[in-house]
Design brief:
six-stranded parallel beta sheet; 24% strand; globular; 10 helices; alpha/beta; Rossmann fold; Dihydrodipicolinate Reductase, domain 2; single chain; five-stranded mixed beta sheet
Length: 272
């Protein structure tokens, strides 16, 4: 007789467009998982979306989240990544991280996870081809370049844009505003290039993965193109993501997290 698996408790940090979709999917039912808690910026704000759930999770402060769950899904601003992830991985639990760019500047969290039996999982998110990248990384990768093209409104407020005094709203045609490493791109555009950070972590590293960022006033979708040269294959990929209610984030990001959670206890897993 097969051993019955223990149900794992899931917490969500942040209820923006991604967190809401993940919350609704968990409430609809994902085998082996139950939503037990959420942490939000303003706990006193009315939450009709929670009231509509079949099983209402606790609303708790960020500091109390770890005690309520075995897995946390980070859907919050990059600046508070550490506050979310560290308590979980310190206690041997799992943190599902969407702010992959912030992970590059908090790399010791990986060491903490390793020392305590925890795990940091970075879902595919708004990118395709991570399976191919991780496979290629088992051999030799020669070069990786990612070209991101975004609508202007999705880049407004980025630290790099402010620092360089770039007038995005005055653009009339597609303009390259950044060309450098994925690490530097993650610092300058923390809410925009988590895809580039995830790509770099999957294969060639954040310093050798090259990134271009273009602002295009004619676009209404977030576009990513990747070119990879490795000893096992040469391949290119492109995707045009429909933005969510937050123009910095594609709708497919939330669906990627949900797909990842379904895989945790699925009898069939497709993909690396």
């Amino acid at each position: 007789m097969a051993e019955e698996k223990k149900t794992q408790r899931v917490a969500i940090a942040g209820l923006g467009p991604i967190g809401l979709k993940v919350m609704q999917a968990l409430d609809g039912g994902i085998d082996g998982l139950v939503l037990t808690a959420v942490a939000v910026g303003n706990p006193d704000k009315p939450r009709p979306e929670i009231d509509r759930l079949k099983r209402k999770p606790k609303i708790v402060p960020l500091a109390a989240l770890e005690a309520e769950a075995d897995i946390v899904v980070e859907c919050a601003p990059a600046a508070i990544l550490r506050q979310i992830v560290e308590p979980f991985v310190t206690r041997g639990k799992t943190a599902v991280v969407l702010s992959a760019g912030a992970l590059l500047t908090n790399w010791d969290l990986v060491d903490i996870a390793k020392a305590n039996g925890g795990q940091i999982a970075v879902p595919t998110g708004a990118l395709i081809g991570l399976d191919a990248m991780t496979a290629a990384a088992e051999g030799e990768i020669r070069s990786v370049r990612m070209i991101t093209r975004k609508p202007v409104k999705g880049l407004l407020g980025a630290p790099y844009v402010i620092e360089k005094g770039i007038d995005l709203e005055g653009l009339r045609e597609a303009t390259k505003i950044f060309d450098g490493s994925a690490r530097d791109g993650a610092k300058g555009f923390p809410a925009n290039v988590n895809v580039a950070a995830a790509l770099s972590l999957a294969g060639f590293g954040p310093d050798k993965t090259r990134l271009e960022i273009w602002a295009d006033p004619k676009l209404d979708r977030n576009n990513h193109a990747i070119e990879v040269d490795a000893d096992s294959a040469r391949f290119s990929m492109s995707i045009a993501n429909v933005p969510s209610e937050n123009p910095k984030t594609g709708r497919i990001t939330a669906l990627s997290v949900i797909a990842f959670l379904r895989k945790l206890n699925a009898p069939l897993r497709v993909g690396t």
